[in-house]
Amino acid sequence: MFNFFRQNQKYEGNPTVLEARDLPSIAKYMKSDACKRVFIMNGAGISTSSGIPDFRSPDTGLYANLARLRLPYPEAVFEITFFRNNPKPFYMLAKELYPGNFRPTPAHSFLKVLDNHKLLTKCFTQNIDTLERRAGLSDDKIVEAHGSYASQRCIDCKRPYDAAKLKEKLFKEEVAHCENCKGLIKPDIVFFGESLPPLFHRSIPSLKSADLLIVMGTSLVVQPFASLVDLVPEDCPRLLINLEHVGDFGSRPNDVVHLGKCDDGVRELCRLLGWEEELEREWEKTKDTLERVSEDAPVSEKDKKKAEKEARAAKFREEVDKSEAELAEKETLKDEVDELTKEVEAGLAISDKDDSKANAPVPGDHPEPHSVKTEDSGEDPKGPDGKL
Ligand SMILES: [Zn+2]
Question: What one-character-per-residue DSSP string does 95-121 give?
Answer without folding.
Answer: HHT-GGG-PPPHHHHHHHHHHHTT-EE
